[in-house]
Amino acid sequence: MTTEEENKDEIFEDDMTQASEENQVEEASKDDSEFEETYTPSGNVLLDFYNQNKNLVLAVLGTLILSIGGGWYYFYQIIPEKNKEAENALFHTEDYFVADSMNIVLNGDGINPSALDIIEDYGNTNAGNKARFMAGVAYLKIGQYEEAKDVLSKVSFDDEHLGPMSIVLLGDAYSELGEIKKAANLYWKAVNKSNNLMTAPYALSKAAIAYEKIENYKKAMEAYQRLLDDYSDSEFAQTAEVSLNSLKYKINQ
Description:
The protein is mainly alpha-helical. It is about 80% helix and about 0% strand. The longest helix is centred in the N-terminal third of the chain and has 45 residues.
């Protein structure tokens, strides 16, 4: 190849390189122009964020809507249906509970579910909570105090009678296990949740006796005195005055 031909080839290659670079610049300018046409800042920060992240925002909103819808369906459809099933399952167990057939309450009659079955299958329903209460009472009556404690510790009632009574029963389980201080504090907790003639005097009487056992005489006297002041017509108040005087005498010795 002659020198003249070599020079021509070099000039051709330089021209091609320059043309390629010019095309790349044009492509970049075109992309920038298209972006500017596609998105123009509005000056509104939230609107600009939405325009720049539209797909992400829509995905998040969709997830939230599905979560809310699923929660609504669970609380207003699934739970009521579960409650109804659980109440039906509990029907015969309640009869055995009233009849004081505690072994059947715990183990079933071979046909209908036991309280323990209902706790396992419907533990998060109102009927499951009632089943726990009945199972706790049954365990107490047959002398299985550890089991009674475990079950009753999971019972929760807003009812002004069953709420305090379930706490008293949990205190009974601890008392039977020799944990008198824990029992006394639970009885007092029940007192503070009781404002009725059915449970308050009973809880006060239990608390007074337990506090006296652990020699917390101040709390014991407070419980006895409250029985006399607030529930003087109660059967438990009949012995409260004698117990209070006896305790005062013991302290003064």
